């Protein structure tokens, strides 16, 4: 278990992840401010490689804020500043050598509302590759098939790759966004409530996809749906008022949390 | 420390109702055992018949508790202590119903004994009955009060009950060759002692479930510390 005031606890290597680094993403003494307002307080946590880590907590607790710090998306907002560090594979994301754009390319992100570009399905997937200069058709085709297969969408769209992405259903659009996110072979996938706008069947498909994707990617998911957290995630972090209250194996968090605040939240006594 | 109420009031009400029904079952079950005792030692067939008749109500409550527990899990997806308490309630109701079945077994056998001439040796079963009643009532109390210290005592005392039952069965068996005219009565007493021993087993299981629900420790199949 970790709290905001404790040193980070290394998640043990176990049967779930025999080869993965337990501190694939490492957050150390991290504080974050929107101007004068502090949104995150002394966050310390290690996120293991190739596992799904869920962030839960009431609205405004800082979970999406922390998520957006992993790819420095928050820096697009005026007036933000932070202290502490976030490391991926041991390297600080704030290191002067790090180019923010490259960082964001190496971290895929999927948002609550699917946001396919007003382009074809094909062009949505290869967008990042084209921007980075790739133009060879064979490479682009390979990327499209690999990514769409990886997002469990290939069979549904393979015969209409050049049709508009906006003609897809909500669930298909979200899976297209996942395909787009994994096209660049990122190390990490960040998902901010990826299923909240989807119907139950589409949700199940995305959850099944998450289960498959974690074999290749380290996934961090923000969710309001606690049943989803129990179904999808290996580890769960509970946040409240900008602080990390408890962070442990998902089964422990939902069957026997150590902190009363966690128990009260997950049992619906507050929130 | 008492938990705050759930925001969802019908969830809170459903949990309260489930617990109340289990406590009602426990009260009826305990009463059945006491009535079986009266029927046996007072040689009163009416008490025996009461035990047998009342079992229907306990059976119905078991079905009700099961249904309510399932509905809570379906509707509210409980977590943590709520989930453990719902599962404990459902498991406890099964054990209470089984214990009541043993009381019915005692009552039926007591009726047969009443039809036979009085056997002074029947009074030897009283210490077993007392211990079984005490263990059973305390297991129910441990559930009602979430008292894990009390629950922890049940396992050891159940072992004492098992020992008493063994000794009783051995002593009765030894008497059989010398008293063949009482063999029917002896057999009824052995079966009654066996029913009491099984009631102790149900009490032990109830206590194990209390310890899991409250302290999240699974002590099943572990040896009792003396």
Note down, in words, how this protein is organized.
The complex is a heterodimer of chains A (271) and B (226). By secondary structure, chain A is an alpha/beta fold. Chain A has a single domain (25-266), classed as Rossmann fold (3-Layer(aba) Sandwich). In chain A, 33% of the residues lie in helices and 24% in strands. Chain A has a six-stranded mixed beta sheet, sandwiched between helices. Chain A has a four-stranded antiparallel beta sheet with strand order 2-1-4-5, with helices on one face. In chain A, helix 3 (121-131) crosses helix 4 (137-150), helix 4 (137-150) crosses helix 6 and helix 6 packs parallel to helix 7. The model of chain A is unreliable at 1-15 (pLDDT under 50). Chain B is mostly helical and 226 residues long. Chain B has a single domain (9-215), classed as Phosphate transport system protein phou homolog 2, domain 2 (Methane Monooxygenase Hydroxylase, Chain G, domain 1), CATH 1.20.58. The interface between A and B is medium-sized, with 16 and 18 residues.
Summarize the structure.
The complex is a heterodimer of chains A (271) and B (226). Chain A is an alpha/beta fold.
What does the secondary structure layout of this molecule look like, with pairings?
The complex is a heterodimer of chains A (271) and B (226).
Chain A: E1 25-34, E2 37-47, E3 52-56, H1 63-70, E4 80-88, E5 91-92, H2 100-105, E6 107-110, H3 121-131, H4 137-150, H5 154-157, H6 170-182, E7 188-192, H7 200-213, E8 218-222, H8 226-232, E9 235-240, E10 243-249, H9 250-255, H10 260-266
Parallel strand pairs in A: 3-8, 3-9, 6-7, 7-8
Antiparallel strand pairs in A: 1-2, 1-4, 4-5, 9-10
Helix pairs in contact in A: 3-4, 3-6, 4-6, 6-7
Chain B: H1 9-41, H2 45-76, H3 80-114, H4 126-145, H5 148-175, H6 183-215
Q: Which structural class do you get from the secondary structure elements of chain A?
A: alpha/beta
**Biggest β-sheet of chain B, characterized?**
none
Percentage of helical residues of chain A?
25-40%
What are the secondary-structure elements of chain A, in order, as H or E?
A: EEEHEEHEHHHHEHEHEEHH
Distance between the termini of chain A: 21 Å
Please state the average pLDDT score of chain B: 94
Main interface by residue count = A-B, 16 and 18 residues
* Number of continuous helical runs of chain B: 6
CATH class of chain A: Alpha Beta
Query: How many structurally independent domains of chain A?
Result: 1
Helix content range of chain B: over 70%
- Placed side by side, the strands forming the largest sheet of chain A appear as 6-7-8-3-9-10
Outline of chain A, from the CA principal axes?
A: globular
> What oligomeric state do these chains adopt?
heterodimer
| CATH architecture annotation name of chain A | 3-Layer(aba) Sandwich
Which stretches of chain B are poorly predicted, pLDDT < 50 over at least 5 residues?
A: none
């Amino acid at each position: 278990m970790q709290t905001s005031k404790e040193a980070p606890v290394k998640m043990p290597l176990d049967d779930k992840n025999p080869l993965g680094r337990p501190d694939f993403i490492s957050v150390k003494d991290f504080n974050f401010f929107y101007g004068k307002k502090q949104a995150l307080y002394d966050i310390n946590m290690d996120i293991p490689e190739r596992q799904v880590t869920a962030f839960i907590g009431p609205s405004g607790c800082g979970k999406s804020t922390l998520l957006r710090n992993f790819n420095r998306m928050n820096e697009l907002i005026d007036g933000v500043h932070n202290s502490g560090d976030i490391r991926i594979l041991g390297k600080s994301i704030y290191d002067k050598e790090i180019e923010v754009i490259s960082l964001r390319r190496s971290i895929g992100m999927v948002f609550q509302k699917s946001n396919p570009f007003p382009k074809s399905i094909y062009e949505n997937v290869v967008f990042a590759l084209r921007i980075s200069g790739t133009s060879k058709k064979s490479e682009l085709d390979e990327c499209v098939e690999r990514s769409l297969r990886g997002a469990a969408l290939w069979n549904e769209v393979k015969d209409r790759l050049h049709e508009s992405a906006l003609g897809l259903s909500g669930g298909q659009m979200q899976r297209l966004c996942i395909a787009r996110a994994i096209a660049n072979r990122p190390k990490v996938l960040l998902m901010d409530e990826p299923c909240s706008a989807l119907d139950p069947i589409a949700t199940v498909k995305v959850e099944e996809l998450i289960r498959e994707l974690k074999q290749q990617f380290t996934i961090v998911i923000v969710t309001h749906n606690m049943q989803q957290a129990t179904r999808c995630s290996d580890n769960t972090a509970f946040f409240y008022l900008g602080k990390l209250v408890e962070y442990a194996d998902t089964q422990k968090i939902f069957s026997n949390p150590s902190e009363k605040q966690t128990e009260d939240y997950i049992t619906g006594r507050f929130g | 420390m008492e938990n705050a109420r759930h925001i969802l009031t019908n969830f809170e009400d459903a949990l309260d109702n489930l617990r109340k029904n289990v406590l009602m079952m426990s009260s009826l079950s305990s009463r059945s055992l006491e009535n079986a005792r009266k029927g046996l030692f007072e040689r009163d067939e009416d008490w025996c018949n009461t035990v047998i008749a009342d079992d229907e109500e306990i059976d119905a409550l078991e079905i009700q508790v099961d249904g309510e527990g399932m509905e809570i899990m379906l509707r509210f997806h409980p977590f943590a202590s709520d989930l453990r308490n719902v599962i404990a309630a459902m498991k406890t109701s099964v054990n209470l119903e089984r214990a009541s079945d043993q009381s019915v077994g005692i009552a039926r056998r007591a009726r047969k004994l009443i039809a036979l001439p009085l056997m002074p040796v029947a009074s030897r079963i009283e210490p077993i009955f007392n211990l079984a009643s005490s263990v059973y009532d305390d297991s129910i109390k441990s559930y009602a009060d979430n008292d894990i210290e009390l629950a922890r005592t049940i396992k050891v005392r159940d072992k004492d009950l098992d020992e008493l039952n063994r000794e009783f069965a051995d002593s009765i068996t030894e008497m059989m060759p010398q008293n063949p005219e009482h063999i029917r009565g002896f057999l009824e007493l052995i079966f009654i002692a066996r029913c009491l021993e099984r009631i102790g087993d149900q009490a032990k299981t109830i206590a194990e479930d209390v310890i899991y629900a409250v302290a999240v420790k699974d002590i099943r199949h572990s040896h009792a510390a003396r």
